[in-house]
């Protein structure tokens, strides 16, 4: 037996380990959200590390590389400018022009553009940390606009290995966030919209039953339409903004938005922006990719489910029986001997399984309560 003081200390000590219901719910939500946060953080850190390495590799090489090719082109241009065709003849002039074409094409293959001939811009670096972050994002999201690419050997070598890990990591992160939002929409729909109807029908008793049922039933058609309209609205608003930022018409802006969100990235339309605006483009890319993945998850899965339901509702067995019956004189009773009596229930198998999942969950929960009570006795 414990004394009164020791008994109070004993209760206070162990009560510190028992948390109230609100605290346990909070911990449960933290455990639910924490893996998603860690995955997003890992992707963000991976992009920043890759951007810093791309910047350190490409920035020193860029100016030297650009100066080398521009000097070669200008040197040939100067020779053509002061070439005496009367003295050396047409054949030498053609050789000089061919040399200019060759060095120009060689520079173009190495990433030199017409903008690099501008005296005001040919001494500025294209590779800054902001542009490197933007390039890293276009790599790991498989968009690849092509307006900024590594030109050094080590930069291209590093890009190969960087994409091997970065592309799966980013695609998994986008799919994970989209799936989390899909489950959240499904949960909110069944908790706030269908809870009263389910309680009235006796399918649920409390909010925990709503959570269990929401995890087993697909999202409603209203939620699917909402997500689809949200994606189209996002694309339309983004296209309208691009008409002012990039001075494109609405069709080109919507076209650019589409090829970005489906990660095609043809590169025929390139963005022109200051270094401060690159992070806005990055936010546009990630939000759009999450919305498009969310739409595919909700609407695409519903379309597949409808196709399965259509296939089950098609009476292929009856069609086969009628075709064979026309070829052979067999009675209906003889053909029905090979048919299960409940085969007509196949189109509703999924619906039955959805609601039976909750009953199984309740039964297992009741069994666990009974077993715990028996252990206490």
UniProtKB/TrEMBL annotation:
Bilayer-spanning residue ranges: 32-57, 127-146, 153-175, 221-242, 249-266, 278-304
GO CC terms, sorted = plasma membrane
Q: Does the keyword Transmembrane apply?
A: yes
- Coiled coil spans: none
InterPro entries cross-referenced by the UniProt entry: 2pore_dom_K_chnl, K_chnl_dom
Q: How does it sit in the membrane?
A: Multi-pass membrane protein
Which compartments is it annotated to reside in? Membrane
Q: What keywords are annotated for this sequence in UniProt?
A: Ion channel, Ion transport, Membrane, Transmembrane, Transmembrane helix, Transport
One molecular function GO term is: outward rectifier potassium channel activity
SUPFAM superfamilies, per this entry?
Voltage-gated potassium channels
Q: Which parts of the sequence belong to the Potassium channel domain?
A: 120-182, 231-303
Q: Which domain of life is it from?
A: Eukaryota
Instruction: Tell me one GO biological process term.
Output: stabilization of membrane potential
Q: Which family does it belong to?
A: Belongs to the two pore domain potassium channel (TC 1.A.1.8) family.
Can you say what this protein is called?
Potassium channel subfamily K member 18 (inferred by orthology to a human protein)
Recorded source organism is Strongyloides venezuelensis
């Amino acid at each position: 037996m414990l004394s009164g003081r020791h008994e109070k200390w004993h209760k206070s000590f162990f009560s510190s380990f028992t948390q109230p219901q609100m605290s346990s719910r909070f911990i449960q939500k933290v455990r639910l959200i924490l893996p998603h946060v860690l995955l997003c953080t890992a992707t963000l850190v991976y992009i920043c590390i890759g951007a810093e390495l791309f910047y350190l590799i490409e920035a020193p090489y860029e100016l030297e590389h650009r100066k080398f090719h521009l000097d070669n082109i200008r040197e040939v241009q100067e020779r053509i400018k002061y070439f005496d065709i009367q003295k050396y003849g047409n054949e030498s002039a053609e050789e000089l022009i061919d040399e200019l074409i060759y060095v120009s094409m060689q520079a173009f293959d190495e990433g030199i553009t017409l903008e690099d001939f501008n005296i005001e811009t040919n001494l500025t670096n294209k590779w800054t940390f902001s542009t490197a972050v933007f390039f890293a994002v276009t790599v790991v999201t498989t968009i690849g606009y092509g307006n900024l690419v590594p030109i050094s050997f080590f930069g291209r070598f590093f890009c190969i290995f960087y994409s091997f890990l970065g592309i799966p990591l980013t695609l998994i992160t986008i799919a994970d966030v989209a799936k989390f939002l899909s489950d959240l929409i499904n949960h909110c729909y069944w908790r706030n919209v269908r809870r009263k109807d389910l309680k009235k029908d006796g399918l649920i008793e409390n909010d925990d039953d709503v959570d269990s049922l929401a995890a087993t039933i697909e999202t409603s058609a209203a939620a699917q339409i909402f997500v689809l309209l949200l994606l189209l609205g996002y694309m339309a608003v983004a296209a309208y903004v691009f008409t002012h930022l990039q001075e494109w018409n609405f069709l080109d802006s919507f076209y650019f938005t589409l090829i970005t969100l489906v990660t095609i990235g043809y590169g025929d339309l390139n963005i022109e922006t200051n270094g401060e605006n690159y992070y806005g483009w990055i936010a546009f890319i990630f939000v759009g990719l999450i919305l498009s993945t969310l739409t595919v998850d909700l609407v695409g899965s519903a379309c597949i489910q409808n196709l399965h339901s259509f296939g089950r509702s098609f009476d292929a067995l009856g069609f086969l029986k009628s075709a064979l019956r026309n070829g052979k004189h067999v009675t209906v009773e003889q053909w029905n001997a090979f048919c299960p009596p409940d085969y007509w229930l196949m189109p509703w198998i999924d619906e039955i399984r959805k609601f039976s999942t909750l009953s199984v969950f309740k039964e297992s929960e009741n069994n666990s309560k009974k077993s715990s009570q028996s252990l206490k006795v």
